[in-house]
Amino acid sequence: MASDTLKRFPTSRGDFYVPHYDLWSDRDEVARGAGVLRPGANVALLGSCIVRQAASYLERRGYETFHSPGGYQYNVHAVRAELERVFEGKPWPVPVALEIPGSGSFVHPFRKNLVARSEDELVERDEQVSEQLASTLKAADVVICVVGTTAEAWRAGTGGAVVNEIPPPDVFNQGGWALDMGNLDDIRAEVRGTMAQLAKHTRAAQVYAVCPIPLYATWADSSIVAMNGRSKALLRAALEQELTEGETYLPMWDWMQAQTRRWSPTRSDGRHFDWVGVDRLMFFCERFLAAGEVPALSLRHRVSSALKDAGYRLRVRGLT
Q1: Which tens digits make up the pLDDT trace of 240-283?
Q2: Rounded to 5 degrees, what are φ and ψ at 169?
Q3: Is residue 95 exposed (0-12), middle (13-18) or buried (19+ Cβ within 10 Å)?
Q4: Residues 176-186: pLDDT tens digits?
Q5: Dihedral of CA 243/58/151/85: which sign?
Q6: What does the pLDDT read at residue 3?
Q7: What torsion do the CA atoms of 298, 302, 303, 305 make, to the nearest 10 degrees?
């Protein structure tokens, strides 16, 4: 006999009564929000290259948003190093300024947007970004941390510190860099470190995701399809094993894999999201995180996104 607490699940073999089920045909629906995102919330975003577009969407929806002017973090090591630097003043794992031979410029091994004409200038800008990010994170209601795009990382020498991404060619070609393909135990340890930093130094609800944008390249001697799947699977598994009821997993990457119809959320490169695609992804995410009902996107919002995409396509074709 069916209990009032069970749901009826009709199939061709008869009816089942189970505590819960969800259908693939309903994959764009969200039955109940996680309850961490409220109207007008202050949201800080960390991590990989979807965060700029995610922040833009949330800002258009009336939230206060911030993502670091220092740039994206592409792996879990870089995310943790960023937070330890920001909150505890811990030195970067490698020298803050990498000089590009013959160029007279210096780049930051973890904050890719920081480029300067001198080491002193780079250090000063680095401190400014740290102060800005620390104050923003401490004031945030919600932190969305996209833990990485890839499990592959470059180390400064065998067993040395991991940097955010492959160094500029003139630096890389000097040698001394070793490829680390990543493993689940190491990734889990970095995720734990990130969670501990946010729990200790912020009051924000913690939300974690895997970047939905595929890899641009793999450094392994293998298929980009296989290695993209490997990286995403390791990151996804690490979050699955480390997050508790106190944190929220946001299925950005999972949503991307569920787009099996002819429509694609990406531009023609098959990687980067167009603005209509961002709207679809982030409307799903907004409802997934929400504490209540989420209003539909306004006509103005939808038209604006479609026009931006049309303008991009014209520029690519050389018509503007």
Answers
A1: 999 999 999 999 999 999 998 888 999 999 999 999 999 999 99
A2: -50, -40
A3: middle
A4: 999 999 999 99
A5: negative
A6: 66
A7: 140
- Alpha carbon distance 232, 252 (integer Å): 11
- Tokens 């982030």 — which residue? 282
pLDDT digits (tens, 9 = 90+) for 4-25: 789 999 999 999 999 988 888 8
Per DSSP, what are the bridge partners of residue 290? 37
Q: Which amino acid is at 26?
A: D
CB burial class (10 A; 0-12, 13-18, 19+) of residue 208? buried
Q: Return the residue matching tokens 């794992």.
A: 93
Length of the chain: 320
Closest CA to 193 of 54, 88, 65: 88
Which is it for the CA torsion 287, 293, 299, 301, positive or negative? Answer: negative
pLDDT at 320: 60
For CA atoms 33, 35, 41, 43, give the dihedral sign.
Answer: negative
User: What are 142's strand-pairing partners?
Assistant: 43, 205
The alpha carbons of the chain give a radius of gyration, in whole angstroms, of 21
Calpha distance 222→224 (Å, rounded): 6
The set of residues, in sequence order, having a beta carbon less than 8 Å from that of 108 and lying 6+ positions away, is 70, 96, 97, 98, 114, 115, 122, 126
For 286, the token pair is 């907004």
SS3 assignment, position 307: helix
Residue 162 is given by DSSP the state B
Maximum distance among all Cα pairs of the chain, rounded to whole angstroms: 79
CA 57/CA 124 separation, integer angstroms: 31
In this structure, which CATH number among 3.40.1350, 3.30.2010, 3.40.1090, 3.40.50 belongs to the domain 37-316? 3.40.50
Both tokens of residue 186? 């190491």
The CA distance from 117 to 106, in Å, is 6
**Which two structure tokens, joined as six digits, stand for 26?**
């309903």
Which pair of tokens denotes residue 256?
Answer: 């991307």
